[in-house]
Design goal:
Layout lengths: L8 E5 L6 H14 L4 E5 L6 H10 L7 H13 L2 H9 L3 E5 L2 H9 L8 H5 L10 E6 L2 H5 L12 H14 L7 E5 L4 H19 L10
Parallel strand pairs: 1-3, 1-4, 2-3, 4-5
Helix pairs in contact: 1-9, 2-3, 3-5, 5-8
The structure holds 3'-deoxy-3'-aminothymidine monophosphate and magnesium ion.
């Protein structure tokens, strides 16, 4: 790594069971094997005080008002931002399992309140902007063949389908570097594609300053 080059912010997104966590782990291993310093982040980050609240909410142990929980998911990202910037500036690439896009997609899928995409995006405006967003595309019927859902909140087909529609709206934003990946492929082929695109993003990120999301 040349001195002074920043790390890249690489986000994996997609509906539940698209294979994000598996691919994040494989990408981490591949980057480290090639000598590229990398750090894995997962949102929600369940270990913090806010994260514990979110975890209890997802596990249906507590109820929270819908706007409130949306803001908590965002706060759970903001509390990691100082650490994220520090690592990126040190030349460490961040591999991120879900980010603000999941925040918008899942809240806007809720019935009743009519959450607009615009309202949902606001609390995350100004977060570090990803250099690459890999969208693991998998139809909900196909995700359903990957075993049954867990028992957490949002883990049902109708909700996932609505979240998927919101993801598609967010992907129309051409100021972001979205890459859609066919997540129905086998794990190794998917990994090769993700690794290739990530290496390209790391090369390019080193040449330009970190920007702010949705600004
Ligand atoms: N989720 C995740 C949200 O509703 N808002 C957010 O901002 C984020 C990051 O949490 N079904 C939802 C999507 C998932 C759930 O994620 C837990 P995971 O990756 O299954 O732990
Ligand atoms: Mg889950």
């Amino acid at each position: 790594m040349a001195a002074g080059r920043r790390g890249a912010l690489i986000v994996l997104e997609g509906v539940d069971r698209a294979g994000k966590s598996t691919q994040c782990r494989k990408l981490m291993d591949a980057l480290r094997d090639s000598g590229q310093p990398a750090h894995l982040l997962t949102f929600p980050e369940r270990s913090t005080e806010i994260g514990k609240l979110l975890s209890s909410y997802l596990e249906k142990k507590i109820n929270l008002e819908d706007h409130t929980v949306h803001l908590l998911f965002s706060a759970n990202r903001w509390e990691q931002v100082p650490m994220m910037k520090e690592k990126l500036n040190q030349g460490i690439t961040l591999v991120v399992d879900r980010y603000a896009f999941s925040g918008v997609a899942f809240t806007s899928a809720k019935e009743g309140e009519n959450f607009s995409l615009d309202w949902c995006k606001q609390p995350d405006v100004g977060l570090p902007k990803p250099d690459l967003i890999l969208f693991l595309q998998l139809r909900t019927v196909e995700a359903a063949t990957r075993g049954s859902f867990g028992t957490e909140r949002y883990e049902n087909n109708a909700f996932q389908e609505k979240a998927l529609q919101s993801f598609h709206h967010l992907m129309k934003d051409t100021t972001l570097n979205w890459k859609t990946i066919d997540a129905s492929k086998n794990i190794e082929d998917l990994h090769k594609e993700i690794h290739y695109l990530s290496k390209e993003a790391i090369k390019e990120a080193g040449e330009k300053p970190l920007e702010e999301l949705w600004k």
